[in-house]
Structures are given as structure tokens and as C-alpha cells.
Write a structure and sequence with these properties.
7-stranded mixed sheet; mainly beta; 122 residues
């Protein structure tokens, strides 16, 4: 069972940057697609970005396109999400999740981390 663990959240001013990491101890994690999702208070969980198992395929939500970058280091069993030009509306709990194939749909992912909080002040 793959158990992702997120880290790197925090408080940042609008326009700033943060780097989030998602890692897992299971070696199989390096071959799985990994997605990032976020959930703001009172809102549903929404797709942010996803990367394929090989790292060669990525997809982003329109709201974060050109501001966020997803990448992976398969040797380190880590997937990173670089958040640039942050906006107050990016505030929320960010979750990573693993799945055999790429998807933008949260229900497709079976293995979820506990989340890391990102707060962007205006």
C-alpha cells in the first residue's frame, strides 16, 4: 500500500512562492502517476496538477497553468509542486495522491496523503 506524505506548506504573501513535496516509502511510488489536489474551506477538492509515472506527461488546472510546475525525481521517490506567483485564492490544503494512470479526477486516486496547508495572504 502506497502512503504518500506531503510537506512544504506554509504562509506566504501574494506574489510569493512555495515548494511542496510528496514522497512515499514504497518503491512502487516511482512508477505511479501522482496528482496534486487542493481543498479550500467550504469548497470541494479540486484538481491542481498531475504527472505520469515516467515523468514525461503533465497536466494542470487552467487556474494554475504557467504559475505552478509539477516534477518528479524517481530516484528520490519524490514528486514536487513549485508554486509561483501565488494568489489568495490558492489558499487551501494541498493533497498528493497516487494512481496507476494519470487522471484529473480525485475519485480515480486510491492512495492519499494527509495534506499540507498553504495560506496566501493578500
Amino acid at each position: 500500500q502506497v502512503q504518500p506524505v506531503e510537506s512544504g506548506g506554509g504562509l506566504v504573501q501574494a506574489g510569493g512562492s512555495l515548494s511542496l513535496s510528496c514522497t512515499a516509502s514504497a518503491r512502487s511510488f516511482s512508477n505511479l502517476a501522482v496528482g496534486w489536489f487542493r481543498q479550500a474551506p467550504g469548497h470541494e477538492r479540486e484538481f491542481v496538477a498531475v504527472i505520469s509515472g515516467s515523468g514525461g506527461g503533465t497536466a494542470y488546472a487552467e487556474s494554475v497553468q504557467d504559475r505552478f510546475t509539477i516534477s518528479r525525481d524517481r530516484a528520490a521517490n519524490t514528486v514536487s509542486l513549485q508554486l509561483n506567483r501565488l494568489k489568495p485564492e490558492d489558499t487551501g490544503t494541498y493533497y498528493c495522491a497516487a494512481n496507476p494512470s494519470m487522471s484529473r479526477t480525485a475519485s480515480s486516486f486510491a492512495s492519499w496523503g494527509q495534506g499540507t496547508q498553504v495560506i496566501v495572504s493578500s
